[in-house]
């Protein structure tokens, strides 16, 4: 393989990175691309000013894009060479990546790569279909490979605690106009031509609670938007998991994003989707409570439910030209 093949791998990787998950589908990243290197940068204009004052969720989103770049490049036959936070004087430059040694992608890597454009975020209950324990163990190992810990919440009492904290945070945020206006900024009306934010078909118009209830964001706030799909048969909670890190640095936020995408792609390969619940983690007191009481003093970075759904919603993403410079 030569220079042209390496350049092709770079182009394919950037195309793939468009499909990484991000908070409210804000897609808070830009890429500087040359024939030798990709530079991943944070886009501060897409930061959530009310919900994400520290930029933690922005960096988690960008970390998911970084793992997608790495996976796509491996699928193209190159081992990616990555530097995270390479320049302290340029805090928005999160990582650089270039093709290294030629490699033959193994079956596991190809499996992840196949899911990049097919993975979906779910925003409702799951079908009453169990997630295999062997898969949960694989997801735990996947997170560990990226420097994070994925912990399934096994105790019904602990699941109710996490649900209650999510309910409390959602209720508080719903009374705060800053949160509501920020949310509606990233909620698309039906027929919207936008290629970012959450499309109207991506969330239910009328929410059907799970038991215990894990409320979703109110993307239909004061609007009659959302999917009219019948949700009566999809009320199972699924498996509640928490993604944590030993510390709470920018490096660990990026690591969290890489672990998150690794877990999501691995789960998607087995027909399992994720529903995200970050409301409680956006409130400092609730996040600290979770850290001390349920997370063994590890820092909670993401709360998810994992389960099976038959939905196949459309995803929207900006074009490569819109995210490159």
Automatic annotation (TrEMBL):
Q: Where is this region: Disordered?
A: 188-214
Domain of life (superkingdom): Bacteria
Start and end residues of each Nitroreductase domain: 116-307
Q: Which SUPFAM superfamilies does the entry link to?
A: FMN-dependent nitroreductase-like
- Alphabetical list of Pfam families matching this protein: Nitroreductase
Please report the name of this protein according to its UniProt entry: Acg family FMN-binding oxidoreductase
């Amino acid at each position: 393989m030569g220079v042209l093949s390496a350049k092709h791998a770079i182009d394919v990787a950037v195309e793939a990175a468009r499909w990484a998950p991000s908070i409210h589908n804000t897609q808070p990243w830009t890429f500087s691309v040359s024939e030798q290197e990709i530079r991943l940068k944070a886009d501060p204009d897409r930061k959530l000013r009310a919900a994400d004052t520290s930029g933690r969720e922005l960096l988690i989103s960008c970390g998911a894009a970084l793992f997608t770049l790495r996976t796509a490049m491996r699928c193209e036959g190159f081992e990616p060479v990555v530097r995270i936070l390479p320049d302290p004087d340029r805090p928005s430059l999160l990582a650089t990546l270039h093709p290294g040694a030629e490699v033959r992608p193994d079956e596991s890597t190809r499996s992840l790569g196949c899911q990049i454009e097919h993975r979906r975020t779910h925003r409702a209950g799951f079908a009453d279909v169990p997630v295999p324990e062997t898969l949960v163990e694989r997801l735990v190992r996947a997170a560990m490979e990226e420097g994070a810990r994925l912990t399934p919440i096994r105790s019904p009492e602990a699941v109710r605690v996490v649900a209650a904290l999510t309910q409390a945070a959602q209720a508080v945020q719903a009374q705060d106009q800053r949160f509501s206006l920020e949310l509606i900024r990233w909620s698309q009306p039906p027929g919207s031509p936008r290629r970012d934010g959450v499309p109207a078909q991506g969330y239910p118009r009328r929410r059907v609670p799970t038991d215990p209830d894990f409320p979703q964001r109110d993307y239909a706030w004061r609007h009659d938007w959302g999917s009219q799909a019948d949700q009566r048969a999809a009320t199972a909670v699924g498996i509640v998991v928490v993604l944590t890190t030993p510390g709470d640095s920018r490096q660990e936020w990026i690591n969290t994003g890489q672990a998150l995408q690794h877990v999501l792609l691995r789960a998607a390969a087995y027909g399992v989707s994720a529903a995200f619940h970050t409301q409680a983690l956006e409130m400092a007191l609730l996040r600290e409570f979770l850290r001390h009481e349920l997370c063994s003093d590890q820092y909670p970075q993401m709360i998810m439910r994992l389960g099976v759904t038959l939905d196949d919603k459309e995803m929207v993403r900006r074009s490569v030209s819109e995210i490159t410079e």
